[in-house]
Specification:
424 residues, alpha/beta, six-stranded mixed sheet, four-stranded mixed sheet, 22 strands
């Protein structure tokens, strides 16, 4: 299995007809995109806006950020299990609109106890410098859903709208010469260069809540009853996994499954001859101790006996409870002789170290911090606000105080965060 990314650099977006890719300018036909989005009966109308790097603009609440990508003809299915048959992702050629993003705005706030604004896209000022999304040109997709739909149905409509628009845009690049191509090296458990064998274990859901029956996460399935499963790294990068519908808290976006920082860094180290990247395991955080023991033991055994790893990198999904699964899996691996590094987030609200300390396992002593609630900014009024409702537009206008965890891209559980902890 090998994936090739055909990268097409995007510097500008404009609204016009017909839709086309002209050099680095992406010309967008909103009539065609509107037709694509309104194929979903849950959506009654949709608006589109373009936001550019450096613009004094604020948008939100952000439901998801997606990089426009589309499979070359004969290379597979875009977002398998969601937009098409659940065939294996990560093979053939995928066209990528680099420098562009499709960002979906929501009409609802994720959780008023944590944030009235939800996650916000900040394109200027100090918060923008802390977010990798501020350097991208964004097509904002603003779906308006039918009245009185269940929350889960609304969020599913947002998910489908975002990926349909992203794929439609990326298909404009198919047939054009790419600015660059990147073919990922062959990796897997058969690697035998005598280098440290490193695996990745990533949580993709937390059973702190039960997934909806039609909630697409892994190849379109909702992960209910799932045991840890081995995936080729390229499957993560090529649409096999999207965030759960309840992914607002903590920071997980489709964009950073497509550009997974941990997986890409392990690939880089493999290519540099520092390690042998032997594979990945996707898992979920349990709802009780029985679930936890089952998932943690299964994940550790896959890494030990199937991937035969010497070391593993682990990341979590969701709030505080998944740290317990993270730590227990790492503890099991350490006791099997496999060195681990884990990535954690601080979700305490009272800023006390006792609240932030979610596990204390002596064997698990290589810990990376991906940002939390300890940083905030006073942000000024901006020239332009884009929101799905007038209420959100008024709320986001500024000036206001906003936590780092509410700026999309600042705290990220997939490893994209620029945040780090300091002892002082």
């Amino acid at each position: 299995m090998q994936l090739t990314l055909a990268n097409h650099s995007i510097e500008t977006m404009t609204f016009a007809t017909p839709a086309r890719l002209e050099g680095t300018d992406l010309v967008i036909d909103t009539t065609e995109l509107r037709r694509v989005v309104l194929e979903d009966d849950a959506v009654v109308s949709v608006d589109f806006e373009i936001v550019r790097p450096g613009e004094r603009c604020r948008a939100g609440p952000i439901f998801d950020v997606i990089e426009p990508r589309a499979k070359e003809h004969g290379s597979g299915v875009d977002f398998p299990g969601i937009l098409g048959a659940a065939v294996t992702a990560g093979v053939g050629t995928t066209h990528v609109l680099s420098g562009a993003a499709v960002s979906v705005l929501a009409e609802i706030s994720p959780d008023l106890t944590r944030s009235a604004t939800g996650r916000v896209l900040e394109m200027s000022g100090t918060p923008a410098e802390a977010s990798p999304y501020s350097v991208l040109t964004h097509l904002l997709v603003i779906p308006h859903t039918k009245a009185n739909l269940p929350r889960q149905a609304i969020e599913r409509a947002y998910r489908i709208a975002g990926i349909r628009v992203a794929v439609t845009l990326a298909r404009l690049a198919v047939g054009h010469a790419a600015d660059s191509r990147h073919r990922f090296e062959a990796v897997g458990p058969s690697a035998s260069r005598g280098l440290p064998r490193i695996a990745y274990i990533g949580q993709i859901f937390s059973r702190q809540r039960k997934p909806a029956v039609d909630e697409p996460i892994l190849y379109g399935a909702n992960t209910d009853g799932m045991l840890p499963i081995m995936l080729h790294p390229d499957e993560w990068l090529d649409g096999a996994i999207v965030p759960s519908l309840h992914s607002w808290f903590g920071g997980t976006e489709t964009y950073y499954y497509q550009n997974h920082p941990i997986i890409l860094d392990l690939y880089r180290r493999h290519q540099a001859g520092e390690i042998d990247f032997v594979g990945t395991v996707a898992t979920i955080a349990g709802s009780d101790n029985f679930d936890r023991e089952r998932h943690c033991n299964a994940a550790a055994n896959l890494v030990k006996w199937n991937l035969q790893a010497d070391g593993a990198v682990l990341s979590k999904y969701g709030g505080g409870l998944p740290h317990a699964d993270l730590a227990e899996t790492a503890r099991l691996l350490e006791n099997m002789g496999i060195k681990t590094a884990v990535m954690v987030s601080d979700v305490s609200r009272d800023r006390r170290i006792e609240s932030a300390l979610l596990f204390n396992v002596p064997e698990v002593n290589a810990i990376v911090y991906n940002g939390g609630n300890g940083t905030h900014w006073e942000v000024p009024k901006v020239d332009r606000v884009v929101a799905a409702t007038t209420e959100f537009a008024e709320l986001l206008a500024g000036p206001m105080k906003i936590d780092a965890s509410n700026i999309v891209g600042v705290t990220n559980q997939q490893g994209a965060s620029k945040m780090k902890s300091l002892v002082y």
